[in-house]
Amino acid sequence: MPAPSTIAIVGASLTGASAAATLREEGFDGRVVLLGAEPQLPYDRPPLSKAYLRGATPFEKTLLRPAEFYREKEIELRLSTTVTRVDAEKKWLELAGGERLDFDSVLVATGGRNRRFPIPGLDLPGVYDLRTVADADRIREVIAPGRRAVVVGLGFIGAEVAGSLRECGVEVVAIEPFKTPLFRALGEEIGRVVEGLHRDHGVDMILGDAVAAFEGSGRVERVVTTSGRRVECDFAVFGLGIEPAAEVVAGSGVRVDNGIVVDELCRTNVPGVFAAGDVANHYHPVCARPMRVEHWQNGVKQGAAAARSMLGRGQPYDEVHWFWSDQYDANIQYAGFHAPWDQVVVRGSLAERKFLAFFLTAGRVESAVAINQGRDLRRAFSLIRARLPVDPARLADPQVDLRTLVPAEKTA
Amino acid sequence: MARFVTVAKANSVQPGQVLKVEIDNFPVAVANVGGTFHAFDDTCTHEDCSLADGDLEQHKIICPCHFAEFDVRNGAVLTPPATVPLKVYPVRVQGSDLQVEF
């Protein structure tokens, strides 16, 4: 199959930039156009809720690659450019402003957008969410020691923001509808550990309660919960998850179901149209089911995998999904495939916040979370990939090297 | 001025192992790859994590915090999120002493 001569990449963030770089690494000598809605060069988002938000790292350090890289590799960067529609039949992109850009094949790497709920007062000045560097800059402007913030939602982003605000001396009240932080991802037992971490750092948590309204005259002054609590504040940040930004393919014939549906080669049902990253609901061969994840590592790796697939050199994308979340002095890492679990096995000490916890379904490790125990988590990758029953007693024994629990022929 | 500093006994770092040492209060890691020693900054260039707490796989050191990977022989980045190479230092064995030029 001859490689296409113009490849358009919609979305100039981690996934899109990884795909563009990979196309050149693979020797593709056609045209590569990388289009992004934001004005900045492609940058790394993890620092936005952590070091960048705290003012501890400059924006330049978050750039994925220097400007010269794109020039040298002849990657046409079209920044501040919104793609409104992918026309898969006519093989062109429609850009805001009416311009069209022809392509031979296209990668959709549009990521996600923050979920917004119809909560009264959500649009009040002083109520923020966080996705872009511009969002982070708005929050940075109001961060000051002694100010009072409400953080709404203690998923990973909310928990990181709460931690960063505390480290800047902001008084933080966090409101979370589940009974612990990170409850959906980690369950109650591990969620309690994260709760303890935040309590020890002075976060006042209101758990099992939700926001009913943001109130204030001209600017947010308080948050009211469904149980009737009123929390006075100077500003609020909400982190209520994202939804895939898939509307660019609306009407194109590309199948959308919880994101853009792709196979293990990042192909949609429409020839020449590929998707990767947060927007891609991808079939995962290890689990034999479709899934959509919002992880940094998936952005890098799936972007690269999609690029190779577009050149006809694709390999089934079968990475063990993995992400990290740094909160205070805790390095939290999660690997595997989130699924309902029937057993949690802990290796290490919950009290000391130095452990690995395995989530098992029918005796198999589906996923694992580590706090300050990253080396062990890494060693568990082949165990997660192997999908074999494993002895919980050996999982729990810190003396057992996790790499030895997988038969050699199953080692990744 | 750079000089060789004794950091450990050579037999205290067996093949496949990494040892964290301090030279002038600066953390340095020494890895033994199949009998050859390599010294490098112990702190990952991505964020503040000790590489000696990670696994050494042949010539590759894996940061335990975010799984960046470096080649201990020359400090090259093999896997992101790190983008900046690791500083490496000359190593020699004098008698039973392991010495790093620092």
Radius of gyration of chain B: 13 Å
Poorly predicted segments of chain B? none
- The chain-level structural class of chain A is alpha/beta
Please tell me what the overall shape of chain A is.
globular
- Given helix and strand content, the structural type of chain B is mainly beta
**Broad CATH class of chain B:** Mainly Beta
**Helicity level of chain A, as a percent range?**
10-25%
Tell me what you see in this structure.
The complex is a heterodimer of chains A (412) and B (102). Chain A has 412 residues and is α/β, with parallel strands linked by helices. Chain A has three domains: 6-113 and 243-310, FAD/NAD(P)-binding domain; 127-238, FAD/NAD(P)-binding domain, CATH 3.50.50; 329-410, FAD/NAD-linked reductase, C-terminal dimerisation domain (Enolase-like, domain 1), CATH 3.30.390.30. Chain A contains nine helices and 26 strands. Chain A has helices spanning 14-25, 67-72, 133-142, 156-167, 183-200, 296-310, 374-379, 381-386, 392-396, and strands at residues 6-10, 31-35, 75-78, 83-87, 92-95, 100-102, 105-108, 112-114, 127-128, 148-152, 171-176, 204-207, 211-215, 222-225, 230-232, 235-238, 242-244, 260-262, 273-275, 280-284, 289-291, 322-327, 330-336, 343-349, 354-361, 364-371. Chain B is mostly beta strands. Chain B has a single domain, classed as Rieske [2Fe-2S] iron-sulphur domain (Rieske Iron-sulfur Protein). Chain B has a four-stranded antiparallel β-sheet with strand order 2-3-4-9, with no helix packed on it. Chain A binds chain B through residues 44, 46, 51, 65, 296-297, 300, 322, 324, 326, 331, 333, 374-375, 378-379, and chain B through 47, 49, 53-55, 62-67, 80-81, 83.
In summary, what is this structure?
Chain A is of the alpha/beta class. Chain A has 3 domains: about 5-115 and about 245-310, FAD/NAD(P)-binding domain; about 125-240, FAD/NAD(P)-binding domain; about 330-410, 2-Layer Sandwich (Enolase-like, domain 1). Chain A has 9 helices and 26 strands.
